[in-house]
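QA checklist item 7 of 12: single-chain prediction sanity check.
[x] sequence parsed
[x] length recorded as 325
[x] structure emitted
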Amino acid sequence: NSSSLSVKEIWQELAVKLRNDPCTMVDKGRLKQFVQMQGVPSYTRIPLWMACTSAAIRMRDQHHVFVEVMEKRGMAPSDEKPPQKVMALFNVYQAKQAKSAINNPITTMDVTKVIELLLKQSECDEEKAFWILVAMVEEVLPPDFWGSTAVGLKGDMEVLKTVWERIPGNYDSKMKEMGITLDEIVLPWLDSLFVGQLSDSLCERLFDFLFLDGGYVLLSITLIMLVAQETEMCSFDNQEEMMAFMRKIPQFSVGTIFDSKLLGSNIKLTLQSLRQEMLRKQQAAMQVQNWVTFSSPKGFPLYFGSEKAKLRLNEQASEMFTIHN
């Protein structure tokens, strides 16, 4: 009876199942409570991340695709490091897969930090890191999060701005007074999935949530870290001090990250709804941008839509913090 097992025994039992069958179906809802308490044990982290996405099934059924990608890529530079190699293989895979959800190659070098974190895990090799990266790009993250258009990343930034404006007591006015935008603070966090911003151990726990619960976790963690610093942020008198502090926020917020209500199920539904709405707007904007040439020095706006649509997004964000703040 699994209800009589200790948390340690539950993880050990799952590790045995995943070792015998890497494609074992896992109960994400049941595991989330254990992940929130302590995180996933290192010995089962990579197998679980793969089982929570299609990575394990892809590796089992499409190993030949990985071999073909390796052959198509050809000889790698002698000084190439494993993270750069995996990213290069992924871009070859993207070009090869006409039906891929994402057709733009990865252009940000922050991805190599993510791959490096994957390769640091026990039982992870280049092929496993490759298939996990494929699953992240095509399933976990919004479309073209890391691609040349960065539609998914821009959409997430707009979701954050929409929600941030509705948080009671936010220090947005203080940031404006100092000439600092939310983009300057948050984009490095999102683009790297916090790798290099948080310690490796915290990033690993964040990835546990990310693979179990989906990409909304990135938005929740960002909001948690922003909200946690209200008192300190309002005490600064110049831009340099504020920016220096903001870069250290992840380290100051360690104790508040994984117990916050902002990782709750209702928050998940609200952020997912906001993300879908904003992504539709971003994709529509990209289509129009492809059709029309603009001469404005500011370029095409990041977000556009009717006032009614914006109002609906604001109402959703406001409701989110009325319930959970």
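[x] summary fact logged: The longest helix spans residues 265-291.
[ ] second reviewer sign-off
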